[in-house]
Every structure is written in C-alpha cells, then in structure tokens.
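seq/struct pair 1
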Amino acid sequence: MAWTTEDKFILKILFEPEKVKTILSDEKAGIVPPGDAPDWTRLVEKARQEGVSALLFHNITKHRLEYLIPPESCRNLSNHYHTNLKRNMAIVGKLRDALATFQKAGIPCIVLKGIVLAEHVYPNIAVRGMSDVDILVKKEDLLTIDGHLSSHGYRSTDSAVTKAVHNPVGYLASLEYRKNSSPLNLHVHWHPVNTSVPATMFAEQIDINRLWEHSAVTRVADSHARMLRPEHMIIYLCEHALRIGHSFDRLILICDIFFSIKAFEKMIDWDFIVEESRRFNLSRLIYYSLSIVKHYTSLDIADGCLAKLRPPDISLGEKLFLRLQLSNRRISGSSYLIYLAMNRTLSDKAGFIARTFFPPPQILLQRQYRKGADFKNVYYASRIWEVLSHILGVLIPGRVKRTKDPSSDTSD
C-alpha cells in the first residue's frame, strides 16, 4: 500500500512530535501546504484502527499541535483518549484485587504487556489501550490459580485448566478468565509463546526459569507483582509482534517496542539481547522486529546489534516479508514466511504447513472457544478457511480487512 499523507503525519506525531512543525509552510499561521494536508477524519479513523489514537492525542496536546487539527477531529481523539483512560482505570481496580489474592496465596506472577507497559513505559496510563491483562505464572500453580479465580466469580472461557495444561509446548499456553460485569479479562499464561500455529522450533528452547530468575519485583496496579527484565521484555515484545496473527499489523506493536527501548535505554545491555535471542532461537524474529521498528521510528538501534542478529541465510520468503513491511504493507499472517524459514528442511517445512492447517484437536477447540465441546471435523474446514484468508491477504492487497478490536491481543 502506498504511503499516504495520513500515514506520514501519524508516524511523525507518534515518534518525532517535536519535528511536526517543520512540515508547515508558515509555522505561526499553522498552514499546511495543500498537497500535504491530511484528511483528518481519515487520519483519526486510521489511528484508531492502529491502536494509537490515545497516544496521538497525548502527543498533540503535549506539543501544542491542536491548531493543526479541525476541532471535530481533535474532539474525536480526545474522546478516544478519555474512553481509554476510563476503561483502563476500571481494569486496574479489578486487577488490584486479583493480584492481592495471588500475593496473599503466595503465588508469584509476571505481568506482561498491557498494564505494565502503560504504567512503566508509556507517558501515562491512558495512552496504551488494552482489552485484557496478560500474566505469566508457573505451570504448577495453575490449578491453585484456577481455584482462587473461580472463588471470585471468574471462569475460564476458552478451555478447562485440566485440559489446557496438557497442550503441547509451542501451541496455546494460556487460559482466558472472565467474570460477568467485570471489565477485567485476565489472560493467564504459563509459557510466553501462545499460538495455534506450531512454534516448536523456538518455544521449546525458551528457558522460562531464566525469565523468572531475571524478573524484578515492581508495582503494577498499585500492587506487588513482577515484570520481565528490560532485555527479556524487548525480546518478548518482538516475538509477540511477529506472531503470525499480528505480523506488526498495528502500529501499537511498533510503539510497544519503541517506548520500551526509550524507557530503559540507559539500562539495556544489547549484547545480552543478542545472547538471549540466540539462546532462545529467536534471533531471526528479533532481527526483523528491530529492523522494522528502526525503519518506522526515530529510534537509533545499534547497527552492531542488528548485524549480530542478522540471519546468514535469508530466504526469498523472508525478503518478501521485509519488503512488504518496509513498504507499509503490515499484513496479519505475513510473518508466516519467517516461521517457514525457521523450519530448516523440506520435511520440517511440510510438517509445519500440515500442522498449521491441522493443529491438535484440543488446540483448535480452544482457539475457537469450544470449551467442553466434542471435536468435529467441520472445525478443520473453518481452520482451513482462516489460514487461506491470511494467505489471500498477503498475496492480494486489500483482500482481507481488519475486523478485530484494535486494542485486542489475540494469541496467534
């Protein structure tokens, strides 16, 4: 897709807001050259789809750029910002209760993404939307956690803990807990990799004990919890952004990495990132993620780090993926080309493709929220159509439109 004026304005306001005025022909009058003027209605809607409308509003007001924007568009951005704030505050209130329950029971947890980014990485809690709260727990604590959450009215919606705990490594490794009338959707993970597309080529090599050993106690939702070490957080966010169901399809995924690096830039050990990426067999994903972030933002990522992470044998599929990304075609499903390259032999590739279309029955049932249902072969027909839709989206520009909530985080 061609770069539009709206795209350019959004990126400039997100990542270089202090330079926005340089694109004006008359700074005092606030005149944008006619050929460069964005369609503000379209820009606001695009920002919403990209999950960055609240952050956009924050930067506009912080840098006093309101005079650029028609009042109605500015009001719409303000509404998005304050809706985010209201929803996030409601989620924080319920999360505080859940974390207190875990702490009282002596159950450790690491808070991932969402709220921990909003509180520790972004300018304030309103600018980072979230539809759920992701926490990492120890697998042996799952049954205890399920009992505590059940006693407070929360129920797993996608599978039963007694079934999900047996999911193979490299597939879905989480349960979604919800409670009627509660704004908190708690996503309980026991492994950071969570997908219905097989990720065994790296999931089995991730040393979860290292994540726990290097994590640090912090304050989240005014409660004691743990967060990942900054380097592990960046690695995790990169893997998450290139999960096949994402493939950097929203700018918020780029923002998460950008603002995390900015927040911890004086603490980050880039050599440690390289070493851990190799240890976890994630260096390919980290290389492409950081390359994409560097391309879209003003972030100065050390070329030495990227050179160390760069795969020695880049496949044609990976070259196509990167070309799509750098030309602003950030299409959900396109990172499948990287996953395919990570399967080295033809036999491995064939097996990977087959398992993509035909994952284990319990994975497909959980992916489709068929809790307690008996497996039916017709579910595979739905899966095949889902995968083919992603393929068509990569091959045909505009073929598949985004339908999910821009603030949501799906597993794939």
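seq/struct pair 2
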Amino acid sequence: MPILSILIPVYNVEKYLAQCLESVINQTLSDIEIIVINDGSKDNSLNIIKDFAAKDKRIIVIDKENEGYGKSMNRGLDVASGKYIGIVESDDWIEPNMYEKLISTAEKYKADIVKANFFSYTTNNGEKNEKINLFPEIYSERPFSPREKTFVFFCQPSIWSSIYNREFLNKNDIRFLESPGASYQDIGFSFKVWVSAKTVVLLNDAFLHYRCDNETASVKSKGKVFCVTDEWNEIEKYLKDRNKLNKNLEKIIAHVKLGNYLWNFKRLDGEEQKAFLKQFQKEYSKYISENILDKIYFDDKSWNKLLRIIYPKSVSKMIRKAVFDLVHPIYKTQVMGNYKKKYLFGKINIGNKEIPALKI
C-alpha cells in the first residue's frame, strides 16, 4: 500500500497536462500512486496520459465517458489505496517537495488534514506567480480542531493544497456531489472535511501553482447558475443526516455561503442573474428573519448594502454595483491572509470592534 494516492481529474486539458504530470511524477516522495481520471476528453489528453503511464508504473488510468467532476473524483477515491489522499487539478503543477513535506507533517501530528498555502499563477498581462496566504503565519504547524478555530471554514476551499487521511474520509463518508456537468464541488467537500476533522495542521509554505488563466475552467461557465446552491443543499443534508447541524453552525453556513453567492451573482448577467437573485433573496431573507445572519459581523455600510440586494424594489444596475463594492468583513478578514485587518485565536477584529468568533 503506498503512503499517498494522488488524484488527477482530466477533461480537455492537453495544453497544460504534460506540465502537471511531470511535476507529480518527479516528487521527492516516491511511494505514491497516481490515479488519472479521464472524464471523456475529446482532445489529445488521453494519449498524453497513456504516454506517461507507459513510462511510469505508478500511474493508474481510469478512462470513462464524460460524467462530471464529482463522479470522476469519487471514482478516484474508490480506487485509491494510499494512507493519504492528494488532489492535483490537471491544469496546475506542484513543487517537487510538496508531498514529502505534507506527509511528514501529517505523520508527525497524526492529522486528519494538512493544508498549505498556494501560488496564484496567470499569464494575463505578463506572467505572475503570487503566493496566496490563507491564514497568518502564527497558525503554521499548530494543530487544532476546526470546531474550536472556525476561521478555517472561511478559507478558500483550495482542496488541492491539502492532503487527507483516507480512513478519515471513509469513516465520515466524505465524497463529492455527483451533479452531472456541475461546478463548485470543492465547496461541499471542503465543508464536510472541516466539520468532521478532529486534528488539522496548516503550513505557511506554498507548493501548488494554481492556474487562473484557463478559460475553459468549468467554474467560468455562466450556464451553471444554481450549481453553488446545489452544493449548499448537499452540505445541509449531510449535516442533518448526522445530527450535526446546530445554531452556530447554521450561522457559519450563512456567512460562508454569502461569499459564494456574492461571487456567483457577480459573474452572472441578464436573465441568469435575475433567476439567481430570486434564490439569493429567498434564502437570505429567511436567515435574517431567523437571526441566523448576524449583523454583528458587518459594519453598517456593508449591512445596508446587503439589505439592498436582498430586498430590492427591482433588479437594477444599482443592485449590481452594490454587489461589486460590497465589503464583507468576516469573509475578507478570515479568507484573505494578505488583507490588512487582523484576527486572533478565538476572536475577530472588525474595524474597532472585537467580535467573539463562532464555535460549533
């Protein structure tokens, strides 16, 4: 049994695939299996995979018809035999020592999850490779439970900058939502991971280069209006089925979901935006009426702008602008490690106010 199974889902990425596979097979950690799932690619991706597999026996190829990201990832999880699971998207690439460092950390602390920072890579307007800090350096290599330090729920999912204990995933039935052609499955997977984990270790290092300029990425499809809603419905079902949903967790869901909904709303336009806005208004009107969306986590200006989105007289340019410049303090503070506002263990500073962090 290898120490690590690396899952690589593939769909029409011939332009970037070789760089991705080269970076994985050249890891300093050699005790790995590489499970490449071809989801019915119509370009030259499958031939590239076969060429690499012919040269490296650690590569396992799953070639199937197009069924979507969720089914591809679950097929990979079912086949995996490693003690830990890693994920690399086929248009990204990783540093040679990534998995050696993550595995040694997981073994040292007996962690369910080890998560690192990552690089945001783009070639638009010149090549840029910027380190994204998901959390302050003070959290690095300090094991904790997400139930106590809930700021991790607000971090960008970035499921590919982590490794997961496979027994932990299986024990908690953590899988991807298998919506055909859907996007955003990282949201549901990530939330299930955080709510179930007992020991998490974060690393200040960055190893994975996340490509932001792939125009074919599924998340950029405007036709997938309600995929993000499907993910949050799946999360709530997962929690209810396991009797894990409580008031504070509902508040966390409402606030984390808000960032996802604002982003989704912002990328849409026309009738698609209007359709999503109706769902947005329905859910968040309910949250406000039930005191689940807590005003304490907003400054007055941000709260008033949010109300204009949720209770508009009409769908107008004014509302779109309100989304563009809406500041969501808890989200900004806890997700964007380079942001100037600070937060501490167990407390969040918003402006001049010190707010108690939610605990599950």
